[in-house]
Amino acid sequence: MEKKQDNATFIFRKKNYKYMFIGLAIIVLGFILMAGGGSDDPNIFSEEIFNFRRIRLAPALVLIGFAIEVYAILLNPNKGK
User: Fold this and answer.
1) How many other CB atoms sit within 10 Å of the CB of residue 42?
2) DSSP conformation class of 5
3) For a tag site, which of 38, 40, 55, 65 has the least CB within 10 Å?
4) What pLDDT digit, counting tens, does each position of 4-17 carry?
């Protein structure tokens, strides 16, 4: 009986995972920056929800994080070899 060698090859390498974790961290940071800004009393309106951090910075970080994730998936670590 012949033994089959199972050569498990992974699609992603260490470099891919590094970029994936960086992208994930940036996405999480964007969602953390979006959180909060509400008032404890529902009868009082807080203008804090319209500041630069929640309207511009946090969504931009989330989009940049998703772009890094796409780059990490499409990155070919064997290209230089």
Assistant:
1) 7
2) P
3) 40
4) 666 777 788 899 99
